[in-house]
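Ex. 9. Protein: Membrane protein YdbS with pleckstrin-like domain.
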Amino acid sequence: MAMDRLFAPPAERWQAVSPRLCSLRRALLTFWLGLLGLGGAIVAGVVGMWWLGAVIIVVAAAVYAFGWWLIGRNWRSWGYAERGDDLLVTHGVLFRTLVVVPYGRMQFVDVTAGPAERKFGIAKVQLHTATPATDAEIPGLTPDEAESLRDRLAALGEARAAGL
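Predicted C-alpha cells for Membrane protein YdbS with pleckstrin-like domain:
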C-alpha cells in the first residue's frame, strides 16, 4: 500500500524497542486501573449500592482488556532507523508519525529513566534540535542500547555540525 511506504525507511530496517516497554505500561495499567476499580467498588459497597460496584468492576475489566491490547499495538509501532545523514523515528497506530532528524541539526542527546523504567531495565533517548518540532524520543531501550545510540548520535551530531 502506498501509505505504508510513506512510513517505511528506504532500504533500511526498523530497530524495535524493548518488549520491556510493553511490560512496564501494562504493569502501570494494572496498578492504576485495579486501584480505581477496586476503590470504586468498595465505595459503592459501603454506601449500599452493590449493583454499582458490580458495574464498576465490569467496566474496569473491559477498559483493562482494551488497554492491554492497545498497549501491545502501540509498543509494536515504535521503531527507529539510523541512516547516513539522519535518524528516523516512527510510532503510532491510529495517528502514525515519522520524524526525520538530520544529524547536523542535533544540539544534544538526553538519556533518561525514571524509577519505573529503571525497575524494568529500560531508558529513553531524546534528541534535541534547534527546532522543537523535529525533536524526537525513543522510549524502551535497554541501557546498553541507549548508551550506544547516545554515543553514536552525539558523535555523528558533532561531526555533521562541524561543517556548518
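Check your answer against this statement. Helices lie at 2-6, 19-46, 50-77, 115-120, 143-161.
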